[in-house]
Amino acid sequence: MGTAALPPADRHLNACAVTSATPGSSADPAGTGGARTLFIYYRVASSQAAAARPAVEALQDRLREALPGLQTQLLRRPEEKDGQQTWMEIYSHPQGVSPQAQDRIEAAARELQALCPGPRHVEVFVACAS
């Protein structure tokens, strides 16, 4: 998704939301030089899905407003297992999601605990070097 598809407020950068990702810096301790993208997955009871979806979408709306330039997605596996769905939130930014922005995302997600009581698994990825 390019910045043209984002609302005007989301086209501006915010120092809290981005990192310059200098290889070997504290923002990029592995020295990859890549922009960090967060993939957060968790289970939602199928019986709670109708209530959880608008709650997660509202959370992502607030995060995009608070962290300009942040791009979000909400996905789920197509199948259900044992009355549960697996959902995934994706957070990206053209300059990467900083550790501080990640902390803010994770703190904000605590409000979802009643609808999504299980653990949230957070994975951080960077693009492969070309």
UniProtKB/TrEMBL annotation:
InterPro entries, sorted: DUF4936
Domain of life where this protein originates: Bacteria
Pfam families for this protein: DUF4936
Protein name as annotated: DUF4936 domain-containing protein
